[in-house]
Amino acid sequence: MSPAPTTTRPSGVPATAAGLRATARILARTDAHGITRLPVLDGSGPFALRRTGFPGPQARVCMVGAMSAPLGGDRLAVEATAEAGASLHLTASAATVALPGRTGDAATYDVRLTVGDGARLDWLPEPLICAEGSDLWMTTTVELAPTARLVLREEQVLGRSGEHTGTLHSRLTVRRAGRTLLDQETAYGPGVPGWDTSAALGGHRALGQLLAVGPEFEDAEQRVRLLGGAAPERRDATGGQGVLAPLTGPAVLATAVAPDALRLRAVLDEAARSLPG
């Protein structure tokens, strides 16, 4: 399950008149009563942001797709900050589908997460689906304070049912207390050498990971664990498989591949159930 060979994202993708520019901004801040408030909840373009649940220690926000995006040429971004002591849970109502545009230009989707001391941020969107003919550059950048907590799930599906995949370049960078905790880059689809070989996806079309970071992992004993069909007691060539491993951080990272999104989620849920708390 090694990442496929990658290429470096251009320092600047040319702007086109056809592309959409949109940014969603979320700010979570705790008040004197320990309730997490949302003084900034601003979505535009395809981002419709909805508060869910009742006011309490954790604020919950669901991103609802207001239009089809990203299309080729679009420049989309999500900026979410949980200030010191706040707790923010972010989900989405449906999968994000990357589609080809009229010009053949690549689209970009940048996620920037910031978590303060004693704060928690759960980033749990639905899968990203790369439709045939699409070209997407996606970056996720996370800045964590020393006592911050993060739960991040990332799921990518290469092609809709019965179609070939588009091209996906993805980079995830996580820094804790100013030091790099995780920095990885992957690429899949047409034009990427070896992405579908046994050294990379081996015929699978769904891939994902679950990252958990927090002080509780400082002293917790974590061992490498096989997940799904990779586990010796659960050999199943048709199911998903993965591995859960500790990082020097403190953090743990589950990485999985599967034939489809449903079986990928089952493997990542298995990893989540094994985490402390």
UniProtKB/TrEMBL annotation:
Main location: cytoplasm
Keyword Chaperone: yes
Entry GO terms, CC: cytoplasm
GO terms of molecular function: nickel cation binding
InterPro entries: UreD (IPR002669)
Record's keyword terms, sorted: Chaperone, Cytoplasm, Nickel insertion
Compartment list: Cytoplasm
Presence of keyword Chaperone: yes
UniProt record similarity statement: Belongs to the UreD family.
Subunit architecture: UreD, UreF and UreG form a complex that acts as a GTP-hydrolysis-dependent molecular chaperone, activating the urease apoprotein by helping to assemble the nickel containing metallocenter of UreC. The UreE protein probably delivers the nickel.
Function: Required for maturation of urease via the functional incorporation of the urease nickel metallocenter.
The protein, known as: Urease accessory protein UreD
